[in-house]
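User: I've been going back and forth on whether these two constructs are worth ordering. Before I decide, could you fold them both?

Assistant: Sure. I'll take them in the order you sent them. The first construct and its structure tokens:
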Amino acid sequence: MSKTFVALSDPVHNLIRNVTRHTLLQLCITPGQLPAMQYRVRPQDLPEAYYSLAVFHAIEGRSLDGTRLPSGLVTPAEKNVVPELVNFFDAVKLDRRCSRDLRLKLKKKGPGMLSCELLSFGTGMLCARNDDPEDLFQRHLWRQHGSLHSTHAVVFARIRALHCAAVPNGLETRKESYDSSNIIYGDCFGELEQLWDRRADTVFLEQVAHSLQGMRRHAEVAAYLHPPLNLQGIIKFHLRAQALWAQPPPTARILLRRLEFIFEHTKIDYSPQTVFRRNSAARAPAARPPRPNRPWHADRSGYDGWLSSGS
């Protein structure tokens, strides 16, 4: 197996990576539900930079490029509710550059594991290209937030999908694309690091392996914002394009082998580009087809102005 991964670790994803690495995972048994691993979230233990990202970017929608997000303005009472509003540590919810990406999880919402798909099938992120030039929301994402790009990224398949687009004259069904890539986001990579840090705890690893068995029949597609139609079909193409393993790891020993493989075949990209598409074909009359290969503007964004150095 020669497949390689690229873990994104710009200051935003490095922040999320540190949070998922140091927030304890533990087994949660809820009546009527399957046992699952969840983060033990203590709002007072989370860094202030996390709340800045969650409130001013994920919730209020402020852009990250060139903007200094305020810090220290979240009250203790607000800290108790903010993590749930942004689905805790999920980068797809926390980073609007990734807001329409898709991934498989044991539970779509809640403080559950984020690396289930990677550990179970060996697949990277399914990234939205947001390439419908007449969709008003996708145009907003192009101009306000951009999208993440790495020079080390590999696209195994480009999957065409239908979605219900918001166009100037109302709603209509249109086409868009998703990239089945080798990208790993910071939330997922930090979680892998926590599992590796706790590799001597065989009971914990067996609990993780046991909970991952639910990915066979009970996995949910995490699609939070303007999802495409036929999610199950898109995921099937995604798994067919790059899956390394057919099923979740049955034992702690096999789980450790997969962790070793992923770490040995992962390159960390500390400076991925945030790419903005300023000029879209959406201004053209509806009868004219959108022009291909529109110009893109790349920006090596520096977020360190608002993230504290200790985050």
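The second construct, handled the same way:
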Amino acid sequence: MTLVGIDKVRLTTKGHLVKSLTGWKIKSGATVGEVPPAFVHDADGNPIHGPGFYLNTPTFISEISPMGLLVTFNPSKILHPYHLLTDPAEVGRIGDEVQATLQRHGVLVNVDDMQATRLDLAKQAQLRHPLSSYVPALAHLKGKRMTGHQYPDGYAWRNSQRESMLYNKTFEVYREQRIVIPDRTGRMEAKWKEGRPLAKDFQFSAFGDLRKADPEQLTDVYRMALHRDVFRTDPKAVQLVINYDTEGDIYRQLKGRHRRGAVWQYLSMGSTAATIEAHGGLDAFGRFLLEAGDNPRTVRHTLQQLRARLERDAFLTARRDREALNVHTLLDEIKTTFAA
């Protein structure tokens, strides 16, 4: 399994203490002739006037406003120009450095207690074709309550709370840093842009919980988000080809005949990819197996094997017909690469 990387983190809190604002700058926006408000005070109780304050460092940016303290950083880019950081514990150590830097600049805060209001997860891979080849195919996908945005070398689906996008990482790294990386490197990002949907999907909101998260759990949340928001199967279409009561009876009968391998017998009755797609994807197929009586450990093992098989099948299909560039094959490659 390719683990997902943590691409951006935004934290906020009102539980900070300002002793001074050493090195901070005052935000613009004060009205001429009016004394700026003073919503913070130094260690001696003296007011510090200003509509807001900001501090930009090589590793993070931060703001103080009447709403509280806001900190944003990209843990992957801090450690490498383009490789993704997949270890939440390492992200936690970067958070400790952020906390220490804020303290040196006069602001005391416990970073573990800060609420995560933005989290970007990503995978990247070298694709078979130029990124521009995939854009027309991606335009056929309709994000769930999202608007599509097409770019020469990428595509994005977004609303005010969530966003998913695929773009040309090779071009971005060279444009920003003049670093040459493998050609046709695509990055697929899933972004949670508000605290409520983030807490709902991850079942945590504090940075202290993020640093202790299981990397495989984060990868599962990323994959499920892409299936839910981008690679969606119309539920009405699924109902036309799958009768869950009938399929459940068939699967249970196969389990009675074959103590082991019943799931593979079931899938061999038709196209593996088509059967799983009819169920609504791998995660939905996993729920089907659980409802049919398989234990969770067996289901996890089966899904791992299926992901490997689908990836292998997609590779073989591509090798057999390298000229078969159409919407289906391009979308299948993207889906298998990033969301399988």
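Notes on the second construct follow. Confidence is low (pLDDT under 50) at residues 234-241. Residues 235-339 form one domain.
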